[in-house]
Specification:
- The radius of gyration is 26 Å and the shape is elongated.
- It has a domain of 32 residues.
- Helix 2 runs antiparallel to helix 3.
- The protein is mostly helical and 106 residues long.
- It has a two-stranded antiparallel sheet.
- The protein contains three helices and two strands, in the order H-H-E-E-H.
Length: 106
Amino acid sequence: MGLIEFFTSIDWQQESDPTSHDFVVLPFFALFFPSVRFFLDRVVFEFSSALLELLLKLALPKIPSTSYGDRIHSSTTPSQLEKQGLYVITHAFALTYCCNAFLQEM
């Protein structure tokens, strides 16, 4: 019996109480999801934030100094503006991640 035939043979309108066979997979989910979440938090998200920082640093355009004559109209240098932009973007990413984690625990 194929997968399509299996799903079409199920009567989705029929309700029934859970049986002991339905609870067999419960320990698997209780161990699987926290371990996957821990792995993603420690390995994937840590490296992805470092990778995002590197990509943003490489992708941000160099800001040329705007000068008219002998006057420079910017109080900061282009490298300082680049760092400020990088910090704003990475902190917004970190704040979004922390807010999502906080709201999921509520």
